[in-house]
Amino acid sequence: MQGYEVSVDELLAAKDARIHLFKQMASHHHGTLVCFKLNIPGPVKNSELIVKAFIRGIELWLDKLMSDSLVLLDEKIINEKTGPEYFVVVDYDPWLIKKITTEIEETHPLGRLFDFDVMDRDLKGYGRTEIGYKPRKCLVCEENAFVCGRSRTHELSELTTEVTRLITRYFASK
Fold first, then answer.
1. For residue 11, is pLDDT > 80?
2. Which CATH number describes the domain made up of 8-134?
3. Structural domain boundaries of the chain?
4. Predicted confidence (pLDDT) per residue in 147-164, tens digit
5. CB 3.0 to 4.6 Å from 70: which of 46, 65, 66, 107, for a disulfide?
């Protein structure tokens, strides 16, 4: 994965900026907030390949919005070295939005990399386990991703190789 490496401080600053943007969007719109980004292990969070997968995720999301006739109230894309992020406010129930986004994560070939955060206007998050889905699986094995990540079960090179393989295989088949 080629790109700029980011520090932990840069990632934390990006998280703070994300929360600030959520608060700003929530104060202007009555709706469900969604942030789409990619789960990319390691210090490189943005590259040509990552952006390509990110754009595909947005296309899938927008196709789903259109097919369900959902009303998009606001949207914003940020593409920094800490990773591309897509923010949207939708006039629809947060539980149903979380179900839609989790189905995309679970069924699309790139879905394991997709990360849709869903919140209501009070910034209450909605998790996948709350709607009956199991926790995310590890990129490398079938175990719980959180458990593998916390215990550092896999080498970083193994994880980044799998990310590259997933993305290149998907686009090679198109």
1. yes
2. 3.30.70
3. 8-134
4. 888 888 899 999 999 999
5. 65
User: Are 102 and 128 contacting, i.e. CB atoms less than 8 angstroms apart?
Assistant: yes
Spatial separation of the C-alpha atoms in residues 165 and 67, rounded to whole Å: 30
- Three-state secondary structure string covering the chain: CCCCECCHHHHHHHHHHHHHHHHHHHHHCCCEEEEEEECCCCCECCCHHHHHHHHHHHHHHHHHHHHCCCCEEEEEEEEECCEEEEEEEECCCHHHHHHHHHHHHHHCCCCCCEEEEEECCCCCEECCHHHCCCCCECCCCCCEHHHHHHHCCCCHHHHHHHHHHHHHHHHHCC
Task: Print burial letters for 135-144: b (CB count within 10 Å at least 16), e (below 16).
Answer: ebebbbeeee
